[in-house]
Amino acid sequence: RKEVEQDPGPFNVPEGATVAFNCTYSNSASQSFFWYRQDCRKEPKLLMSVYSSGNEDGRFTAQLNRASQYISLLIRDSKLSDSATYLCVVNMGSNTGKLIFGQGTTLQVKP
Amino acid sequence: NAGVTQTPKFQVLKTGQSMTLQCAQDMNHNSMYWYRQDPGMGLRLIYYSASEGTTDKGEVPNGYNVSRLNKREFSLRLESAAPSQTSVYFCASSDTGRAWDEQFFGPGTRLTVL
Fold first, then answer.
1. Would you call B90 and A43 a contact, using CB atoms and an 8 Å cutoff?
2. CA closest to A31 among chain B residues
């Protein structure tokens, strides 16, 4: 079993759609949770951290369920510029910056 | 600020050759990391350096060595390249190396081993 599992997609959606990505992780000791965005042939960049209370940044909402070891990302009113791969990321446990990345979910937003 | 820089951008090696990938950051970060990214696998941690003078193994350290030359620079060496090391290599840095730190990535080195 992979330590961080994501549906690789691709998700093909029209502009303006709402799309949700899910991720599960296996290490119950993980303490920090993130979504990173990676454009084609570019480096990953932090999209948002994911807190237990849930958090929102504009059109993006992230949720964490520690009991189920499940993380989600919701994108509302999709833009063409949202087309990218979204990486679910958790740390390896304790207070370490050693990260485990999911394989990513690819989103393609079409006009 | 340039952020995290990596050299070279592209490299082709023959099996058995050696090379060093260079990484530097100008953000005065304490922690630095080396990852590899393969299709369908996500990024995997090779080595990391929590602070200047320290290094530790990640998930996939076999076949690699690292040097934290100073606070700014962290190099990755392949002593005897193998085709299985064909990958995209990313260097990253973070402020403190703790759980909630954002990691900043370089543009990557695309390595092919023939």
1. yes
2. B99
A64-96 residue pLDDT tens: 999 999 999 999 999 999 999 999 999 988 888
Give the span between the Cα atoms of B76 and B78, in whole angstroms: 7
Q: Is B44 on the interface with A (CB under 8 A)?
A: yes
C-beta neighbour count of B14 within 10 angstroms: 9
Asked whether the beta carbons of residue B94 and residue A97 sit closer than 8 angstroms, the reply is yes
Residue B68 token pair: 């934290």
Give the pLDDT mean for A22-44: 95
Long-range contacts of B64-70 (CB under 8 A, 24+ apart): B64/B34, B66/B34, B68/B32
Contact status of B105 with chain A (Cβ, < 8 Å): yes
For chain A, percent of residues with pLDDT exceeding 70 = 99
B34 burial (CB, 10 Å; 0-12 / 13-18 / 19+) is buried
CB contact under 8 A, A44 and B58: no
